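S.,

Sequence below, as promised.
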Amino acid sequence: MKLKPYKILGLLPVTEITFRRWLRFLADRRALVSMILVGLIFGTSLFANVIATDRPLYVSYKGQNYFPFLVEYPESEFDGFAGPTNYYDPFIAEEINDNGYMVWPVVPYHYRRVVKDAGAEFPSAPDANHWLGTDDKGRDVVSRLIYGIRVSFLFGFMYVAITAVVGIAAGAVMGYFGGWVDLLFQRILEIYGSLPTLFIIIAIAGLVQPNFWLLLGLLSIFGWTGYVGTIRAEFLKARNYQYITAARALGVSNATVMWRHVFPNAMVGTITFMPFALAGSVTVLSGLDFLGFGLPPGSPSLGEMTRQGLANIRKWWLVYPIFVGLGGITMLMVFIGEGVRNAMDPRKAIRIRLPKKHAGAVQPGDAAGEAAANPSAAVETKP
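The prediction came back faster than expected:
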């Protein structure tokens, strides 16, 4: 009987060994739940412009349909003056309600908007309109938390992608070619390691106002070195394997050998490191914002909210939400990293069950089965 190809989630075709690693990860309930929660949090934050905004999602006015969260309409559309429409303006709100209606988002406040319905003193306590109150400038805490999480995740994913590509490429070249190439890159790494990253960022922040892209570029310039050591060691070890020597003897180019034959086996350690790098990038950005050298003032930032919580330590709505948000995201990413690390380690005795169409391929839950499926990656197993 011909077995169907292995597919993750029924969509992504993979090899048997990769499929077994995926099943090991699914068997780790803590990692699986953490991945689901991170996916829900990040997915929700991507729709921040729909969930938390000071523009209605839909306006029906005199038989016309408007979508203010997508299009900025002038007040003249609603019998007002020229200029952008302020839907909180009493005249505009009354005019629309008399001739139609408005559908507001779940959190009808933008992260920059200073609210007018939370009292005269800020920060104000939570109420029916502001579930977590307002900060010391009168801005809704829930809205800023949603946008801050989105910024942190996007920064983290982009940082990990950039540093991983550069670090993996450098480590692969160092390990595969060795010799003077390896020595040259090692000297460059020593120079990078001696540079005070934080002081360089502080000095640049004193000259220009940091923004998202500037911080991403600066941190990426110094962050790629963390991947070099693992990839270099794997390529140094793999370049002397017999199948690599045979590929060279057949005239296969170095680029093809590195990409198709060495790279897949060398990525195990790097993939294991990535979730921890993502958690670290979120805390680094928050730390810079906390010190005042991060995103521009007014930007939604977990670090800036942490600084506000420290300045208003008795205002619990400024302390606990950011603690749960930042600490929870970091903890979930660490749990995912541990799950990936255990899934990549064939010596971990995790009981898994293969689908019936693949049940006869390799005995599940046995590290020796993975070694049999991939002889070049065979390791000593523990009972």
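Residues 29-46+144-349 form a domain with the MetI-like fold fold (CATH 1.10.3720.10).

Coffee later?
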